[in-house]
C-alpha cells in the first residue's frame, strides 16, 4: 500500500519564515531522524526536485536532502531553455542522494554565479539568483557521522538554497527581482536575458543583498518571436527545493 507523503508547504506558511532548530545530539542515529530523512527523499523525488529542507514539509529541524539525477539533467538539456554555453557554465552533475543534519555553510572565495532557480515552496516561478560559486559545508549524516564537503557549481547552489530554508530565507529574498518569470515563460525569458546577466563571474556576489547593493539588476526585454517548448516547464531545477 502506497504511503501518503506529506505535502510541500507553500510560501505564506509560517514555518518557512522561521529559523529551524538544531537536531539534538541524542537524536543522531535515531529512528525518528532516519524516518524524517527517508520521507524527505521520497517527497523530493515525487516533486520532483533536486533538494528539500525539513521546514518545507512542516518539520522545523535543520535537515536537508539533495540529489541530482542524469534524467533531470537530460530533461533540462532537451528543453532547449538554455544554450550550450550556459548549460556548461551551470556545472550540473548527477550525485546523491545526500542527507545533511545541522549543516553549516561557508563561502569559498569571492566568485559568484547567477542562474535561474525556483523553489518547491514557491510554485510556478523562477528567477536569477546570485550565489557563491563554491562553498564548504560541515554537517552530520543521519547516523551522526561528521561530514565535511566542498561543493561548487550547481551542487553549491542547491546547498545554499536549502541552507537558506533553515534560516527562514526563500530565494525570492535574494533574487534579482526584475528577472522573475512564470515557469511557463522561462524558455523565452532565459533567451531574452541580456548577455552577461546569467553565468559565472569573478566579482563578489554578496549573499546578503541587504548589506551590499550587489551586481546591477538585469533589465531584460522579452522577444515575442521565441517559440516555447512544452517540456521546458518541468525542468526540475526550476522546481529546485
Ligand atoms: Zn526551496
UniProtKB/TrEMBL annotation:
EC primary class: hydrolase
Main location: plastid
Catalysed reactions, semicolon-separated: N-terminal N-formyl-L-methionyl-[peptide] + H2O = N-terminal L-methionyl-[peptide] + formate
InterPro entries membership: Peptide_deformylase, Peptide_deformylase_sf
Subcellular location, record wording: Plastid, Chloroplast
Family: Belongs to the polypeptide deformylase family.
Role, per record: Removes the formyl group from the N-terminal Met of newly synthesized proteins.
NCBIfam families registered for this protein in UniProt: PRK00150.1-3
Protein name: Peptide deformylase
Species name: Volvox reticuliferus
Amino acid at each position: 500500500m502506497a504511503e501518503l507523503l506529506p505535502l510541500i508547504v507553500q510560501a505564506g506558511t509560517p514555518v518557512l519564515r522561521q529559523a529551524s532548530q538544531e537536531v539534538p545530539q541524542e537524536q543522531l542515529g535515531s529512528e525518528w531522524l532516519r524516518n524524517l530523512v527517508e520521507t524527505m527523499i521520497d517527497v523530493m523525488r515525487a516533486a520532483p526536485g533536486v533538494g528539500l529542507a525539513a521546514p518545507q514539509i512542516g518539520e522545523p529541524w535543520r535537515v536537508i536532502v539533495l540529489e541530482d539525477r542524469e534524467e533531470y539533467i537530460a530533461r533540462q538539456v532537451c528543453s532547449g531553455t538554455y544554450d550550450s554555453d550556459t548549460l556548461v557554465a551551470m556545472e550540473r552533475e548527477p550525485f546523491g542522494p545526500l542527507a545533511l543534519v545541522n549543516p553549516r555553510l561557508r563561502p569559498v572565495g569571492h566568485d559568484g554565479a547567477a542562474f535561474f532557480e525556483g523553489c518547491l515552496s514557491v510554485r510556478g516561478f523562477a528567477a536569477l539568483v546570485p550565489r557563491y560559486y563554491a562553498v564548504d559545508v560541515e554537517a552530520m549524516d543521519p547516523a551522526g557521522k561528521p561530514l565535511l564537503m566542498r561543493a561548487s557549481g550547481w551542487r553549491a547552489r542547491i546547498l545554499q538554497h536549502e541552507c537558506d530554508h533553515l534560516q527562514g530565507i526563500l530565494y525570492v529574498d535574494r533574487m534579482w527581482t526584475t528577472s522573475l518569470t512564470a515557469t511557463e515563460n522561462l524558455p523565452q525569458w532565459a533567451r531574452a536575458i541580456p548577455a552577461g546577466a546569467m553565468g559565472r563571474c569573478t566579482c563578489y556576489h554578496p549573499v546578503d543583498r541587504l548589506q551590499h547593493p550587489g551586481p546591477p539588476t538585469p533589465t531584460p526585454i522579452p522577444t515575442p518571436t521565441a517559440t516555447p517548448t512544452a517540456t521546458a516547464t518541468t525542468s526540475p531545477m526550476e522546481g529546485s527545493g
